[in-house]
Design goal:
The complex is a heterodimer. In chain A, strands 10, 11, 12, 13, 16, 17 and 18 form a seven-stranded mixed sheet that branches. Chain A contains seven helices and 20 strands. Chain A is of the alpha+beta class. The N and C termini of chain A lie far apart (about 70 Å). Chain A is elongated and about 90 Å long. Chain B is mainly α. Chain B has 19 helices and two strands. In chain B, helix 9 runs antiparallel to helix 11 and helix 14 runs antiparallel to helix 16. The radius of gyration of chain B is 24 Å and the shape is globular. Classes of the chains: A alpha+beta, B mainly alpha. At the A-B interface, helix 1, helix 2, helix 3, helix 4 and strand 8 of A face helix 5, helix 12, helix 13, helix 14 and helix 15 of B.
Chain lengths: ~350, ~600
């Protein structure tokens, strides 16, 4: 009886597993989210190499295990082979994995060095510095403002979001005022703990940004991305049903969208997985026909720039899960206008916020 | 001390209390550890199911137990969630896996395997359990505080990273005291195991004739003896820091990040906690799996009716894993802000530690090769141990690769990885081992059909729970998040898989009730067991089931290694006490 239970049970189980898997996983993608920084291809390549090496070992070992279970199952009158081992075989299966493991170990040095050791300098051309100051439970960002130096009244202060111009290298010095947090942006392939008392930093270079078309059927107050837009660049199953277009450079942006309407909303509210502007979002910076003006109703807006999402990856307390943030990579003009017109600069901060930034230690 | 206890025990005058509760007998203490860990297994499993429920249906009342545990409408409140994950991890590691592998099976099997009457220090052994028991009470208090006043619970993760743990509420204090107790229990146990195995082996039982279970216990005990005091020092420092001393928290920090309370601490170094904690806790990861490797080896050899393939290599690779286990700790800290050059060194040592594990896997395959595999419940569980450990081991290579770890660190990929090792590995071995040694513990057999049904369902649901976590983790789903609606664009597409994981986890939890029923029912109603129901070779099977109070009337004399299966024509096994046989080699060639 038990052996019949095993046989039929295994078959039924396999059926249930694959059925459930295909139903639940239909929206999911496999592997990393699309890499959109210069280091991403190297990390993804390394991942792929390891996936193949371990994949072959996995199939080989599990296959042999299954085969041995079938082939060497107990039979009436059968006699087991009596052996205590085989030195040659053992040497082979010691040396081969050793070679593979040492290969993997040394193969990754250059990528690690590039990601965590060879940092760009703040003064290098094309480097944009954004300070990240973490606290329970908020990411606070500071850009230098018009004078290009930190510490003045024109510093641009942002909470839970920051913006950088396209085609720039981003350097993010990290500090924490209370406990350990961790700065993680999925598509940039960066993660670094912000350790209180330590001076950490990350750098990355985004390769572009996403533009989404707005579905106006829900206008004027409900706003969502149009679903069937740009199938050619549809990132398979990324971000559920939403579709957006990847723009790699300033030139591409000018060619495809320069004369169209693009909205950048600072006050996206997330509800039910949809992005909606809050009703008082008249302070949104809106770029229309390459001009910025404020207070444009949503019905006049066709496209929007989609932020990259980031999270806190280190347990930092009871509301750890709320510590997400967004990074806007913007076309040059939009970036300049944002920096010039944004009201959230240092002198307009509350006393509390000003006090907070005074705790930053260089 | 041992002779004294022996003389006392010979009179059989003890009442119920001295016999079953305040006992110094290694088998009773082993069973006490077993019962305690099974209780905590179900408690921490319940916590896991609450965690999963909240991830599939955030802010929705948890069915059945919600109102009792969480109050209000029965939904897990966000501030309770981190307490749940912290307590689940802590209890599973320190109150389930370590005590069941080391406390229960180490205690029960070591004196039987080395052919002696009891542990070297029986009173110390009892002390080890009762200190552990004190830890159990303290962790239950921490758990109660966590449910009752969530903001005071122990919610800094099982790793208790400072300064979050420094700031935690009173639950954290009880957590620390509980951990100090289980750490003390581990040290006391380790001294006992090492002495017993090194000094009290039966005549003829050379080192290379020990069963791998006992070898693994021996090396694990050395790990515990060296590593646990380091944890104790870390815990003591943290306890003192919470009283105002300074070890881990630098100056200039503010408790809420708002204008307000400046932390009283200054001059500490945050990463110090992580270095000390992982210097213990990485070896602890091997404490969680080495004894399971030993037991699975024994179960496989008995099940396949073949000697262990490459016995010496198996022993040496356990030792190598233990040795290398001390120089890989900082691979938990690749993105912690530690010097990245140091990360490179730890990456290389981490790659190296995969080697002895791979040798063991190939030797297990070699053991099954040309065997006559008997698919009873212990063997099925042992084979599952190998199959799942392979997945857990291979996924470890991804995070050992530092650049890949940047992406997957602190995501569900890591959660999948260590559950494949600790649940897929250790817990399958534990289920097999309980089934296998049950007759020697209780004198009865567990039900084989129920055992197989439990194995099959556990195997299926285990994979349905933890395999998809690789996918969500690669996608970037971070650990310890109560809900993912704050990263909607990226995480919305993962909600389907998340639900599948949850429903499978609920099924996995219910499946364990089959085990619980089979276990308790068989203690009283199971089929009476003969002395050697599995036709196994090791010494414990030469005495009646259940094992007599002092194990052996006469100390047995050992004539050969423990794995002489298939050497003879008449029967396919040869007990270690049997003399003769044309070739009676030591196990290693």
């Amino acid at each position: 009886m038990p052996s019949r239970i095993l046989k039929w049970g295994s078959l039924v189980a396999l059926g249930i597993l694959s059925g459930a898997g295909s139903v639940f996983a239909q929206d999911s993608a496999w592997g990393f989210p699309p890499g959109r920084s210069t280091i991403a291809p190297e990390i993804d390549h390394l991942y792929t190499v390891i996936l193949w090496l371990t994949g072959v070992v996995f199939v080989g070992v599990e296959g042999l295990l299954l085969w041995f279970c079938i082939r060497y199952r107990r039979r009436p009158g059968g006699k087991p082979g009596y052996t205590h081992g085989n030195n040659t075989a053992e040497i082979i299966w010691t040396v081969c994995p050793a070679i593979i493991l040492i290969f993997i170990a040394f193969y990754q040095f250059s990528t690690w060095k590039k990601a965590k050791i060879d940092f760009p300098k703040m003064t290098d051309p094309g480097v944009v510095t954004v300070q990240a100051f973490a606290r329970q439970f908020n990411w606070n960002f500071r850009s230098p403002g018009a004078d290009g130096a930190f510490g003045g009244d024109d510093d641009v202060i942002m909470q839970k979001r920051f913006c950088v111009p396209v085609e720039s290298t981003v350097l993010v010095p990290l500090r924490s005022i209370d406990v350990i947090h961790s700065f993680f942006i999925f598509q940039m392939r960066v993660k670094q703990d912000t350790v209180p008392g330590h001076r950490g930093a990350v750098w990355f270079k985004p390769t572009g940004f996403y533009v989404a078309k707005i579905d106006k059927s829900a206008a004027p107050y409900n706003f969502q991305f149009q679903k069937d837009w740009h199938p050619k660049d549809y990132q398979k199953k990324w971000e559920g049903d939403f579709r957006w277009m990847f723009v790699a450079s300033e030139a591409d942006f000018q060619r495809d969208y320069g004369s169209k309407v693009v909205a950048i909303d600072e006050s996206f509210q997330y509800q039910d997985g949809l992005m909606r502007p809050s009703l008082d979002s008249v302070t949104s910076t809106v770029l229309q026909n390459n001009e910025t003006r404020k207070g444009v109703p949503w019905r006049d807006v066709d496209y929007t720039i989609v932020p990259y999402e980031g999270t806190c990856a280190e347990l930092c307390g009871l509301n750890h899960f709320t510590m997400s943030f967004q990074m806007f990579v913007l076309p040059r003009k939009a970036y300049d206008l944002w920096m010039a017109n944004d009201a959230n600069n240092y002198e307009n901060q509350t006393e509390k916020e000003q006090w907070f930034w005074q705790q930053w230690k260089n | 001390m041992s002779t004294e206890a022996h003389a006392d025990g010979g009179h059989h005058e003890f009442g119920f209390f001295r016999k079953y509760v305040w006992s110094t007998n290694h088998k009773v203490i082993g069973k006490q550890f077993l019962w305690s860990s099974i209780f905590f297994l179900f408690l921490a499993g319940l916590l896991a199911m609450c965690i999963r429920w909240n991830l599939a249906h955030p802010n929705t009342p948890v069915p059945v137990v919600g109102k009792i545990l969480f109050g209000g409408d029965g939904a897990v409140r966000a501030e309770q969630f981190t307490m749940l994950t912290s307590m689940h991890g802590t209890i599973m590691i320190f109150f389930v896996i370590i005590p069941i592998l080391v406390g229960a099976f180490g205690n029960f099997l070591i004196p039987l395997h080395v052919g002696t009457h009891d542990m070297a220090f029986p009173v110390l052994n009892a002390a080890s359990y009762w200190v552990f028991w004190l830890g159990c009470i303290l962790i239950l208090i921490a758990q109660f505080i966590g449910f009752h006043t969530p903001d005071q619970g122990a919610a800094a993760g099982w790793t208790a990273y400072a300064p979050l743990s420094t700031l935690g509420g009173s639950g954290m204090t009880f957590w620390l005291l509980a951990m100090i107790c289980v750490g003390t229990s581990s040290i006391l146990g380790a001294v006992n195991y090492i002495t017993t195995i090194a000094r009290m082996r039966a005549p003829g039982l050379g080192w290379m004739r020990l069963p791998l279970t006992t070898w693994a216990q021996f090396i694990t005990a050395i790990l515990q003896l060296i590593a646990t005091p380091v944890l104790a020092s870390a815990l003591t420092m943290l306890t003192f820091e919470r009283m105002g001393f300074n070890f881990f928290t630098p100056g200039g920090l503010f408790e809420t990040g708002d204008v307000g309370k400046q932390m009283v601490h200054s001059g500490g170094v945050v990463l110090l906690w992580q270095h000390i904690f992982w210097f213990y806790s990485h070896p602890a990861v091997y404490i969680l799996v080495l004894p399971a490797m030993g037991m699975a080896s024994d179960l496989l050899s008995v099940g396949a009716r073949k000697p262990i393939f490459g016995y010496r290599a198996m022993v040496y690779s356990i030792a190598a894993i233990a040795g290398l286990g001390f120089i890989v700790w900082a691979h938990h800290m690749f993105v912690s802000g530690m010097n990245p050059y140091l990360g490179m060194a730890f990456m290389v040592s981490t790659m190296l530690i995969a080697l002895p594990s791979s040798i063991k896997v190939f030797n297990w395959l070699g053991t099954l090769w040309r065997g006559q595999i008997r698919f009873d419940t212990p063997t099925l569980n042992a084979i599952s141990f190998v199959a799942m450990f392979v997945i857990g081991g291979l996924s470890g290579i991804f995070m050992a690769a530092t650049p890949v770890d940047i992406q997957i660190h602190d995501t569900y990929f890591i959660v999948a990885h260590f559950h494949y090792v600790v649940f897929g590995g250790s817990l399958f071995a534990v289920f097999g081992a309980i089934f296998f040694w049950f007759p020697k513990m209780f004198g009865r057999m567990m039900n084989n059909t129920l055992g197989k049904i439990h194995w099959l369902l556990t195997f299926v649901f285990f994979n349905a729970v933890f395999f998809p976590m690789h996918i969500t983790g690669l996608w970037g789903m971070t650990r310890r998040y109560a809900d993912y609606t704050f990263v909607p664009m990226t995480m919305d597409s993962m909600q389907g898989l998340n639900r599948m994981i949850t429903y499978s986890a609920l099924c996995l939890g219910c499946t364990q009730l089959i085990f619980l029923f089979n276990f308790t029912w068989s203690i009283w109603k199971g089929k009476p067991a003969e002395a050697n129901p599995w036709q196994a070779n090791t010494l414990e099977w030469t005495v009646p089931s259940p094992a007599p109070e002092h194990n052996y009337h006469e100390i047995p004399v050992v004539h050969h290694g423990p794995y002489e299966y298939g050497a003879e024509e008449q029967k396919d096994w040869r007990a270690q006490t049997e003399s003769g046989g044309a070739a009676a080699p030591e196990a290693g060639h």
